[in-house]
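Field reference: sequence -> structure
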Amino acid sequence: LPYALAAAFAALAIGLGVWGGARGGGADVQTYVTRDTNGAQARVVALPENGLVVVTVTNLPQLEAGRVYQAWAVRGATPESLGTFNTDASGSASMAMQAVLHSGETLAFTVEPAGGSLAPTTAPFLATRF
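Structure field:
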């Protein structure tokens, strides 16, 4: 990773600073809601016993052709791709991802070239810390 992106992801592991969030749910279901300063929101429901994370995003801007949103599990300072997605005309999308995120790990979202990236090429615009 370029140094600046590595630093951005390391900062996520330490604390989310600009992102606000809330956590709730029972022992087997965890719900997180995160908003950015521009109104984008992610609602994350983690089902650790099933190895599943369900994400609903709203108020995301439409991307130009050749770009996609990409989700990342950030463990320490190491991001792991969980897949790419596009939004509908209203800026919303829902997806289910096979992942188990543990306490202290982060689910982050970036904008990437179509088809996704092996490593993030932009800083995360929205993140949820578990």
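Note: Residues 1-26 have pLDDT under 50 and may be disordered.
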